[in-house]
Amino acid sequence: MHAYLRRLCAPSPVPIRLLSPFPRSSHRGYFSSVRLLEEMRADAPVKIKIAYRRIITSLPRLSLKSRTKASLLAEWDLEVARVRAWSARVDSSLLERWTAKKMCLPSVTAFAVEQEGAPKSTTARQESTPSKGAGVATALTTRLQGEVDHLHPSNSRQRLLQPSKRLFSTSHSNIIEGRKQALTERIAADAVVDLQQVMADLRDLELLEKLHKTTVKAAAGFKDASRCLYPLWHDVDQGKKSKVTFAELQEALPPIYSVPWTHIAERLTSGTNSKLSTLSEKDKAALLLLRVYNIGSSRSEAFVAAGARTLEDLEPLARRKKISLVRAHKIGLRHFDDIERLIPRSEMMAFDAALRGALRKADPLLECELLGSFRRQASFSSDVDLVVRHKSFVNKDDEEAAASLMRRIVEVLEGENLLDDENRLMFGPKKYAGLARLPGNKHYRRIDIRLAPYHSYPYLLLGCSGDALLMKLLRHAAKKRGLCLNEYGLGEKYTADDQNPNGFKPGTLRVVKDEREIFDLLGFPYLTPKERDYAVWRPRYERAGVDLSHVHKL
DNA sequence: CTCAGGCGTCG
DNA sequence: CGACGCCT
């Protein structure tokens, strides 16, 4: 986002820059600033909330396809003008109130307006790694002070410097430790936790971010947190576990997930979540609809606007032509529960056998594999991810070959009653998505089938099996060698945007017969899929003298 | 510096 | 066909 904004702003006639990200330790101040802003709206003639929020959140999500750079810049200018207008109207009484609450200027906390050419901003931004958060804080505090001085030269200096310093000086880990301790004191280790409720909270908080289209990152935090709890959750769902204790929860979710943790803490201590419980009926409905496959933020809002409040409302509304439900929605509604459910490994093994067996029987030249966490021996999966190759499909752009191959595959699997065309979500030449069910099983499972261009197969296996950190490491390694690694291959990146088969410079694509060769090419010890787990490969690579500095930060 | 890229749907 | 939304 920031790179994008910087690029966007570089030629802009308006001298303004966005100062973010903040060190994490300032999040608390940041969020209370937001709350304060809402409060202050009544007092402030200019819509502060909108001004500040639009700048931070709306620009990166504007559709680049449909807008010219000029219109984006115009919008940007407009926001800047609003902020300026607001700054000009901050009067001393407002300032009094803020300082009384030990707050620095909220909106200036969220972003700083500065003159182009002020030398410190770039260094401040580059120092924004967690360890150097203090550098940013100092730079920011200085700038804050400058801004405040500018607005109110007479009375602001001392009052504002202090609170902002305090706001930034507490280190992140201190806050986390403090919180953790406070929580441990209040909740007994063997207290029983309503995991289902916690999972639902995390899910809804994630969806809420998605609904309001704020940053992708914020939603990802909740997602990651809930991933950490999947193993526990799955055990409960499978009936292997009847209750979960607080100690187990603490074990599963590292304290680094500070935002999710604060929400969990609230739930465990007070039994509610204030952010979720205060939502309007419409927002609650929108969150529910978001869970349906193929309903995203824009349809969700539209459906709610048309009067939908529950899942059952949708079909009647569609019949009365108030909204339009497409195939995928109907399937998503019919299998709403199944789609959210995790799949036990035993069933994944059965899928593996059934899918392979069916394909091999139909054509011995078909090679296939189940990817994702299943391949890393995980004890559960969230969907069935199948990749297939056949020598009849070699070139990525040969749609004919891909389409006929895909048709054959789907026909075979439907013949075996693993798939059925009623539950087809998506069916293109290279990608199929739908629901699969093992004969005799009551649950449908989400399945994705991908066709790999013949020579990309090993790369796809590697790229789609993870784990994420390993992929990051390997890509960095490739990059250091001036190469580019992705799920299609390893080669020299081709920058000109025409006539490049797979995005690589012709002739530089390394053809490999298996994943091991890719590790060899990059000079890393080979890892079997089940070893591609950070806890396993990390120490081993360390011993082998691999440079892991890039991976150190999450 | 991190999905891009593939799909369906609608106009 | 292009634009858009949604998903992985």
From TrEMBL:
Q: What keywords tag this UniProt record?
A: Cytoplasm, DNA damage, DNA repair, DNA-binding, DNA-directed DNA polymerase, Nucleotidyltransferase, Nucleus, Transferase
Output the Gene Ontology cellular-component terms. Answer: nucleus
DNA-directed DNA polymerase X domain: which residues? 186-533
Residue spans of biased composition, Polar residues class: 120-131
Record-level Gene Ontology MF annotations: DNA binding; DNA-directed DNA polymerase activity; metal ion binding
Catalytic EC class: transferase
Q: What is its EC number?
A: 2.7.7.7
Q: Which GO terms describe its biological process?
A: base-excision repair; double-strand break repair via nonhomologous end joining
Q: Where are the annotated segments for Disordered?
A: 116-135
The catalytic activity, as recorded, is: DNA(n) + a 2'-deoxyribonucleoside 5'-triphosphate = DNA(n+1) + diphosphate
What InterPro entries does this protein's entry cite?
A: DNA-dir_DNA_pol_X, DNA_pol_B_palm_palm, DNA_pol_lambd_fingers_domain, DNA_Pol_thumb_sf, DNA_pol_X, DNA_pol_X_beta-like, NT_sf, PolB_thumb
Q: Where in the cell is it found?
A: Nucleus
Q: What does this protein do?
A: DNA polymerase that functions in several pathways of DNA repair. Involved in base excision repair (BER) responsible for repair of lesions that give rise to abasic (AP) sites in DNA. Also contributes to DNA double-strand break repair by non-homologous end joining and homologous recombination. Has both template-dependent and template-independent (terminal transferase) DNA polymerase activities. Has also a 5'-deoxyribose-5-phosphate lyase (dRP lyase) activity.
Q: What family name appears in the similarity comment?
A: Belongs to the DNA polymerase type-X family.
| Name of this chain's protein | DNA polymerase
Organism expressing this protein natively: Leucosporidium creatinivorum
